Amino acid sequence: MKSIILLSSAAFALAVASTSAFAHASFANKDAKAEGYVVATLQVPHGCDGRATTDVFVKLPEGFIAAKPKPKAGWKLEVIAGKYQKSYENHGSQLTEGPVEVRWTGGDLPDAFYDTFVIYGKVTGVAPGTKLPFAVTQLCGADAKVAWDEIPAAGVDAHSLKHPAPTLTIVAAGDDPHAGMVMAGNSHDHAAMMEATQPPADSSTANVGALKLSAGFVKAMLPGQPVGGGYVTIDNTGAADDKLVSVSSSDADKVEMHEMSMTNNIMKMRKVDGGLDVKAGGRLEMQPGGYHLMFMGVKKPFAAGEKVPVTLTFEKAGKVEMLLPVLAAGSK
Question: Which domains does the chain possess?
Answer without folding.
Answer: 22-184 (2.60.40.2230), 204-260+270-327 (2.60.40.1890)
